[in-house]
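Dear Dr. K.,

Following up on our conversation at the group meeting, I've run the structure prediction for Ornithine cyclodeaminase from Psychrobacter proteolyticus. I'm pasting the input sequence below exactly as I used it, so you can double-check it against your construct before we proceed with anything downstream. Let me know if the numbering doesn't match what you have in your notebook.
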Amino acid sequence: MLNFIVPPKQGIPFISVQTMAKIISDYGVEQCITDLVDALEQDFLRWEKFEKSSRFASHSKDGVIELMPVSDGNMFACKYVNGHPINTKRDLQTVAAMGILSDVETGYPILLTEMCILTALRTAATSAMLAKYCAPKGADTLALIGNGAQSEFQALGMKAIIGISEVRLYDVDPAASKKTADNLSNSGLKIVICNTLEEAVLGAEIITTCTADKRNATILRDNIVTEGVFINAIGGDCPGKTELDKNILMRADRVIVEFEPQTRIEGDIQQLSSDFPVVEFHRILKGEVPARTSANDLVVFDGVGFASEDFTALVFLRDLISKQKGYELLDMIAQQPDPKNLYSIVNSYSRAPAAAMG
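The predicted structure tokens came back this morning:
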């Protein structure tokens, strides 16, 4: 007899935005990110176990809609996500995301969830994980360029994993920086709102760029980047969308990516030739390649977000809700007595009115 991970008659756990917010609030944002970093490291160490592919993307003038599938042979995960920077002018989210985790043996869904909040958490955890291995020793100041929806998560992730004490904010929209500063006012971090990009990066050992414009932009210029810093570039994540001056990439001592075939298309390295040398992060984690060889090394993470990170986050959420209550069960899978007689479900409803009439 098959051992279903979720008994079909019980329904599929569904995590709404409200439920996710309560779960994360109760557990703690920093604790979630800390646990996710541990889980991400374990999954990157078994990189070869994953069936990997670049995400499927449907591009339009103002944005992109993507499907991000991955499997480790036991479970399958897929995220639906969009990126429409213009949405903020419509009072809509730039990113709307939902995800599903399934059992490979039966094909049955295990979990269906919102993934706006969960993606922000896993992105912050990925950034913090890279900084753990790539930032200079003793780094305590983060320059956060782009203060939109992900900024607070990024700051708290660097605090939890790296131990930063100061965050220097810069955004072309001053209201975004004020929003971030207000949200982080009780975080224990020193928050400095900067008027210029140059002011923000001054003295920062970690520079995170997280901007949303769908264009080839030079958010971070080469002439203001000093030796020894770690650049966590996570905003350039589709063709035609970049953040870094290409000269920064060309003089970097190490450029690190998640899944090279995808980053060649979507990352900041799309500005450079196809043979420009990069290192996939799993190799650094395994000790095959050092992240840096000296304190003066300039190290860049060209992060676009890869499906295995969503897989990790979904499994983390599955395990987290197993200890909690309050989520909804969805009746989404047909489960008639005879598996071959799917029509019986429809037929039972079609006969019901006649039987009621007598």
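Two things stood out to me. Residues 12-117+309-352 form a domain with the ornithine cyclodeaminase, domain 1 fold (CATH 3.30.1780.10). Confidence is low (pLDDT under 50) at residues 354-358.

Best regards,
J.T.
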